[in-house]
Amino acid sequence: RKAAEGGYCSSDQPTTRIFCNQDLLRPFLFACNFSEAPENLVEISINAIQLLLSAEAVFLCDAVQIVRILTIQSSNVSLGEKIRLHMLQICTVVINYTLMAELGAFENEQDKVLDALTEEKGNIDGLNEELFTQACVLCLKLAQSSMRRKVTSQMGSMWTAASSTLSGATVGSQEQKAKGIRASTSMKTIRRASNATLRQLVSMIFDKVCSVVTTDREGISTRQQKRLEVEITVASKLFMDLCMLAEAKCGGDDGVIKGSGPLSKAIQQTNLVPLPRSMSLELLDGILSQNKALFSSACSISETSFPILLRSIACPIVTTILLS
User: Fold this and answer.
1) Nearest one of 236, 240, 238, 230 to 266, comparing CA atoms
2) What is the pLDDT of residues 175-201, one digit of tens each?
3) Does the model's pTM come out above 0.85?
4) In three state form, how does the secondary structure of the chain look?
5) Which residues are bridge partners to 257 per DSSP?
6) Is the pLDDT reported for residue 111 higher than 60?
7) Pick from 310, 208, 207, 324: nearest CA to 277
8) How far apart are the two ends of the chain, measured CA to CA in Å?
9) Which of 71, 111, 149, 285 is the most buried (most CB within 10 A)?
10) CA Rg, the chain, in Å?
């Protein structure tokens, strides 16, 4: 009645952000905290987490825990294609949640109250290197585990066919072949979705950094300023990782990854094969073509090192590749 009489608009009403409570999220994190969790339990937990994210009822400091349990579930062999694709979707939502939560200045007193409340409860983290590293781990594990499962499935199909031939049995051979084709198609879908998610995550963080660096940030809080500085650092390290992977110099003589950015750390943690040069170059091309202002000479060198990285690292690598 007060809202109707006062003519308040919807933006003036309290949002679900005020109901942020780690006790709501914790049971679903515990349910997915081991890699042998049943498929139905994982599905229920992931759906609940997505609901809390859509209602803005998750603290930013809990974002890394959400991506961590998704990474754990990437090793769960009992999960089907639908849940694995849903996990990639949730990862994208979490990264976007942390990036968009700190945009702009405070619009009204309610935002100031909510910001003070969340800071008091420890909600002071946004996108950081650990969070983005875990997201990269998830994408790499799902992409490369699907490749290993494809090889295993093909070997199993070959063994079944050979056994059937030697024993003279033909019943069910067509069903086995059809089942193998469906499994191969599912794994290919997961691998493509994982690579697409990684491209989207890289694009999201650079779009955010570009919009921040090239616009006026007057009026934002000190805490938001610190978050933005962290995001700029993560993006610059990611750019150097991609340059090293494109140059194929991310590993030393002993084969150990030497980079210090989130993508290199993800490869180190999982002992997986690094990104192919073609994909690294594709990601670099997307970054440079979509965020030209970030790498232009007009961009403040004192604030970001991206123009320097472009001149000193990216350009020599591209020249070397073209000459070779």
Assistant:
1) 238
2) 555 555 555 678 889 999 999 999 999
3) no
4) CHHHHHCCCHHHCCCHHHHCCHHHHHHHHHHCCCCCCCHHHHHHHHHHHHHHHHCCCCCHHHHHHHHHHHHHHCCCCCCCHHHHHHHHHHHHHHHHHHHHCCCCCCCCHHHHHHHHHHHHCCCCCCCCHHHHHHHHHHHHHHHHHHHHHHHHHHHHHHHHHHHHHHHCCCCCHHHHHHHHHHHHHHHHHHHHHHHHHHHHHHHHHHHHHHHHHCCCCCCCCHHHHHHHHHHHHHHHHHHHHHHHHHHCCCECCCCCECCCCHHHHHHHHHCCCCCCHHHHHHHHHHHHHHCHHHHCCCCCCCCCCHHHHHHHHHHHHHHHHHHC
5) 251
6) no
7) 324
8) 73
9) 71
10) 23
Residue where the block lists tokens 């942020």: 20
Task: Tell me the CA distances in angstroms from 222 to 99, 129, 207, 314, one per residue in order.
Answer: 16, 20, 22, 32
What gap in Å lies between CA 128 and CA 215, rounded to an integer? 21
Confidence at 6, pLDDT banded by 50, 70, 90: very low
- The two structure tokens encoding residue 91: 């990862």
Return the percentage of the chain with pLDDT > 90, whole number. Answer: 35
Asked whether the beta carbons of 224 and 190 are under 8 A apart, the reply is no
Pick the closest to residue 110 from 22, 9, 24 (CA basis): 9
Residue with tokens 């500085």: 229
pLDDT tens for each residue of 137-176: 999 999 887 555 444 444 445 445 545 555 555 545 555 5
Residue 65: predicted pLDDT:
93
- Tokens 């996990």 locate to 87
